[in-house]
Amino acid sequence: MKKDFCVLPCNGLDKFVGSLTREVALKLLENGDHEMICPVLYHAAEKRYRKALAEKPLLVIDGCNTKCASKLAAEKNLKVSERINVSESARERGLPLTDYLEMDESIEDFVNALAEGFESKPDEGEASVFEMPNPIRYRSFSKGKFIFKLPESDYYFNENDCWAFVKNGIARVGVTDFVQQNLSDILFIDFPEVGREIAQFDDVGSVESGKSIFELVSPVSGVVTAINTALEEAPELVNESPYEAGWIAEIRLEQWEEDTEMLIRDEAYYEIMKRKVEEIEI
């Protein structure tokens, strides 16, 4: 990846992962003509970074799953091009997370590997050429004033209320209408990293509303190839169009035949959804 970025790291300097995040950001600045966005200064003097943000794509580096940097970007309506989650990367590499940062060889190796891995990552996932069926026919089930919709065909579901639509070896995944109505107004989407390998039933992002956070459980296994960047500025698309414009990510399939053994087709999931709707108080 040869682009230069604005780099927005988290500011948790009193914590190990916050300090580690800053080290990763500084290493990236050594390797390219990137520009650091200080979250504290950005709050106080937003104009200082306006020109840089207009000229360069934004890389957000979160230290932990609180994702303060991502939330700051969402609060300021900044378009995020790339994300790194340091604590997730540390766990994947078996690096223990302690209460304080002590720069030893293992920490330096981790920082170098994470920065170099980002710089060398193929530039993929910026645009999707995936085409959904048009039109999509729906069946519906109502309870009180609420109407729950479900596509009549071509979608696969898991019991975690997540869906997959598959075309040409790529699965587009998202959450069901049942989920978005339970969450109410959706405020923030946490996306998986493009290039990340996903096993079936791994978490592949989350959807956050004022009421709760819903973890998206992947219906399929494979490699994330794209995220729905439109949701960064308009997360409400998940409320408005959960099966179409509100998709979360695209995954290149690796063992689709095996995955289908654990998935549910439209009619069967419709009965599951009806049962769940009947069980909730509206």
Topology:
Blueprint: E1 6-9, H1 16-31, E2 35-36, H2 39-44, H3 50-55, E3 58-62, H4 68-75, E4 80-85, H5 86-92, H6 105-120, E5 138-143, E6 146-151, E7 155-157, E8 162-167, E9 170-175, H7 177-183, E10 186-190, E11 197-198, E12 203-209, E13 213-217, E14 222-227, H8 230-233, H9 237-240, E15 249-253, H10 256-260, H11 266-279
Parallel strand pairs: 1-2, 1-3, 3-4
Antiparallel strand pairs: 5-6, 7-8, 8-9, 9-15, 10-12, 11-14, 12-13, 14-15
Q: Can you walk me through this structure?
A:
The chain has 282 residues and is of the alpha+beta class. It has two domains: 6-120, no CATH class; 138-279, RNA polymerase II/Efflux pump adaptor protein, barrel-sandwich hybrid domain (OB fold (Dihydrolipoamide Acetyltransferase, E2P)), CATH 2.40.50. It is 33% helix and 26% strand. It contains eleven helices and 15 strands. It has a six-stranded antiparallel sheet. Strands 2-1-3-4 form a four-stranded parallel sheet, with helices on both faces. Strand 3, helix 4 (68-75) and strand 4 (80-85) form a beta-alpha-beta unit. Helix 1 (16-31) crosses helix 6 (105-120). It starts with 5 loop residues before the first strand and ends with a helix. The mean pLDDT is 86.
